[in-house]
Fold this protein.
Amino acid sequence: MSLEVCVLASGSSGNSIYVASANTRVLIDAGLSAKQVALRLDQIGVVPESINGICISHEHGDHIGGIRVLQKRHGIPVYANAGTLNGIMRQPKSNEIATKVFQTGAAFKIGDIAIEPFSVPHDAYEPVGFRLRNADTYVGVVTDLGMATALVRDKLRGCKAIVVESNHDEDLLREAPRPWPLKQRIRSRQGHLSNIDAARLIIESATDELEHVFLAHLSSDCNTPDTAMRTVASQLRLDGLGHIKLEIAHANRISTIWRASARCPLPN
């Protein structure tokens, strides 16, 4: 095994993604309660004490809600950049969280997994996506961003699996009974990707390596799993990428476990 991925939960109620090699286990975010994180890890045969680190993408509650209790109960190291740590420290009981600080743009290692945090545009202090590597396998995670930058596309190229935000359908957002300023924030360059935006990002960053895409952080009232899947799949087919496996990451249940496939060498 080089890397495996399971989305434990994704949505405004909580986000957490499990990524593991044969020897190392990490979480990207822990926005569920500690109890829910433990329950969902149990479904894939993992105990919280075996997690080697939690990497935080940004300080919003749906990404950090469980970290204090997870660290207190299970002694899991927490990793964040200085901006995110600043945001966390402004929240209640934040002084109870011991955080190891990484630098955005500089790769670091947890066990045998190399982790590269990179900047993404979102309305947080110093939000990041992550590119994770073990051996020759890369995985990308970008769950909250308002637009796909050249940097984001570059970091997703060469990944075998990616977790990418597909937050809203543009028509459903326009019709939703939400305040106009909130709609504007979601549509902004610091907000969230639409289904069409997600499809474009996948198309523009896909290489022959890409096998599996988790569509994540779907809005509960401005999107549906069927709408997201249909929109993204149709765009990928038009660009000759219909072979890429798409999967919806849900808020209330874990995803399948993706494992990197072994590719046979081409004959001479």
